[in-house]
């Protein structure tokens, strides 16, 4: 934002410190009004013809903008990618524990990467891995959506991506 002597355009549309529109006037006259008030002349809308300028305390304005950005950043929720690993022959008890963790991650609003790891002769039974992924997707269908289905093997891994359902 340009302010005070940085504004080189001969005419500007002026808004005073109270927010009232004064009208189109010479930049020099607008600068004098700002100096009399002990404030700055700040170019608000440079693309307008003539550009819109406002009389304000520029330091206070910058401070308030920084505060607003901090508040907006505080309210943001970063979505993380969590991972839960299974094997094709994972027993029922271990499966339930891993599903509990998976649900906890989804409830926290994170995406979950479900990985089936194959070792040795397990690679011959890829259908067991895809059945397990189908079972996982079926068990969490109320809380999550499948964002990426396991299209093919990636080395010794079969991967599926789950994302929490939006309640909006």
From TrEMBL:
Chain's role: IF-3 binds to the 30S ribosomal subunit and shifts the equilibrium between 70S ribosomes and their 50S and 30S subunits in favor of the free subunits, thus enhancing the availability of 30S subunits on which protein synthesis initiation begins.
Pfam family, one: IF3_C
A Gene Ontology molecular function term of the record: translation initiation factor activity
Family statement: Belongs to the IF-3 family.
All copies of domain Translation initiation factor 3 C-terminal, residue ranges: 79-165
Domain Translation initiation factor 3 N-terminal: 4-72
Principal subcellular localization: cytoplasm
Keywords: Cytoplasm, Initiation factor, Protein biosynthesis
Cellular component aspect of the GO annotation: cytosol; membrane
Organism of origin: Marinicella pacifica
PROSITE patterns the UniProt entry points to: IF3 (PS00938)
The keyword Cytoplasm is assigned to this record: yes
Compartment(s) of residence: Cytoplasm
Self-association state and partner proteins as the record states: Monomer.
Protein's name according to its UniProt entry: Translation initiation factor IF-3
Database matches in HAMAP family: IF_3 (MF_00080)
GO BP: any one term: ribosome disassembly
